[in-house]
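Hi V.,

You were right to ask for the full record rather than a summary. Here it is.
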Amino acid sequence: MSNKLFAKSFKPLTINQVKMSDEIDRGQHVIAYGAAGSGKTFGLVNKAMNLIEKGGRQDGLLIIRSTVSVRDQGFLPGNLEEKEAPYLAPYIDIFSEIYNMRNAFSLLKGRSVDFKSTSHTRGVTFRNKIILIDEAQNLTFQELYTISTRLDNSCKLFISGDFYQSDLDDKDKKGIIKFLEILKSIKDISLIKFGHNDIVRSGLVKKIIIAKERYEKRQLKAMENKGK
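Predicted structure:
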């Protein structure tokens, strides 16, 4: 790579996307949670790369993602890079769009961008990085707490997640809810909830998500009535 890459700045499309962008601009740590397809991860990655390229305190983006199977990576064939490859696909797509270059992620990886699974963050202190914990609904409370307490004063924390898409066992699914309740009392952290009106992936996705939630509410109400 002979020339430096520069990320495009995308205009927020919804009220909560605007709020997320504004909170980042005023120096807040940001937790974006809620509806799938609402541009949470895309927006956070885009803002992170814009900030890094402006030459602030943070010189790189570290994406930390937990997939349930990553916890058992030792049982999977291949080296670490081969084991993590399937989970990089969303970021390859995001960086391709941000930089208008298909191989942007591979060019930046190891330079201004890096990726770790939760299994490889223990005992590490993060410095001068924007830390993005993505798919946070798939982290237990202890994992969220442990990673968030590894940041020094030069770091910025971004978290993205959706309560309704957790792959964890039922006993662990409430970890992100408990964690967010704790963070609400910290003035340096802004929590932004994305709803149906923020879904931008497609009209069909929006209809499917709304229909699913309505179905689940009907099922819950039926169970409650049955118990009376």
